[in-house]
Amino acid sequence: MAGATTAQRGTPSPDRPGRPPRKGAGSPKPPKSPKSAKPEKPAKRTARGPGEQLRRGPVLASLAAAVLLVAGGSWVLYGSSWLRVEKVTATGTDVLTPEQVLAAAAVPVGAPLVSVDTDEIESRVRGRLPRIDSVDAVRAWPHGIGLKVTERKPVLLIKKDANFVEVDASGVRFDTVPKAPAGVPVLELNAGGSPSARRFDEERLLHEAVLVAGSLPAPVAKQTVQVKVGSYDSIVLELTGGRSVRWGSGEQSDAKGRALTALLKAAPKAGHFDVSVPTAPAAAGS
């Protein structure tokens, strides 16, 4: 009896209440819950509603109007007879005539005004007429081209056989004329025996003579008959009435011109003037 009692005590009863089952004792694990699937996005609608179709109508109409406007404008500018060259005018001439300028310009009358190359016209006029210093070709809508020219002005003449070569203030020899224009002095270059002839050639001396002639005030220039150049620093002006002016070099020509103007007023009966040093001008003789 005692042994039986001992065996019953040492054997645990599975049905004994109050004791939880041990881990790993064969009890099944609870199943994992499956991940919830993301809801699918609804497909975009491709069909256009009546509102969108109504908005497209004005846009297409505006595009069509723009195309027609561009096409119509191009036709007016290039294809129609409304904006074509019918008249060409030239102004600003002095020695030249407007007809000479128009002939040199060769503007294509009848061509669409918008297609006329004004730069090419200006280049033609300057190339064919060296007397022209500048020219401005402008469109005069709806049918015209206007040419405004500025002629070169001679400040010195170079005697060449029986003719005279005109030289402007920039030293450009632009024309040869049979008669000397009034009020323009003639160059007399005689520097062959000058010690500075090797250093200052004829072209440099011509430049100095042009510098002097171009700096003369208008009242003095009208009285100047000759510009004599013996060397770089020996330039003499011959004025009307047998008067002469010792000028010196071409340096400080503007100041010398002002000094000579003052001397001519202060000593109108003097026959010789010296402005080689413009700060100390002198007049002598009668």
Structure commentary:
With 286 residues, the chain is of the alpha/beta class. The protein contains seven helices and twelve strands. The chain has helices at 2-10, 50-79, 98-105, 118-128, 202-215, 218-223, 253-266, and strands at residues 87-91, 132-140, 144-151, 154-160, 163-168, 173-177, 186-189, 224-231, 234-239, 244-248, 272-274, 282-284. The strands form two sheets. A nine-stranded mixed sheet has the order 6-5-4-7-8-9-10-11-12. Strands 1-3-2 form a three-stranded mixed sheet. Strand 2 and strand 3 form a beta hairpin. The longest helix is centred in the first third of the chain and has 30 residues, at 50-79. It starts with a helix and ends with a strand. Mean pLDDT is 81; it is low at 1-21, 23-27 and 70-79.
